[in-house]
Amino acid sequence: MIYGIGTDICDIRRIRASLERHGERFACKVLAEGELATWRERSERWPERGVRYLATRFSAKEAFSKAIGLGMRMPMTWRHCEVAKLPTGQPVIVLHGALKEWFESRSLRAHLSVTDESDYAASFCVVEK
What we know:
Blueprint: E1 2-11, H1 12-22, H2 24-30, H3 33-45, H4 47-67, E2 81-85, E3 91-95, H5 97-105, E4 109-117, E5 120-128
Antiparallel strand pairs: 1-5, 2-3, 4-5
Helix pairs in contact: 1-4, 3-4
């Protein structure tokens, strides 16, 4: 049974501008520890890849927050929601802390799709019970 559906489109130029304005502090606000390490690695080798990585994670977390019906309010936080990937490359949601407890107590399961192209990153999330 579908619990919720969320979608988000993110302007990569807006993420780039936030990074230019706030530096790494912006990435630290949005990304979980594992994501932050990947972002730093990608940004160092090719800055544009780092921007795109951050934009896809931002978009995916927004889509997930809409699918669970909370938006960005507790227990949903940027850093308690992590976007990882399976060995196949499929993106998955990994939850931490109070958000993980909230999600598991409702026996929910998330399915995620992310993409980026030119100036936009987009995500689609379906949560089922």
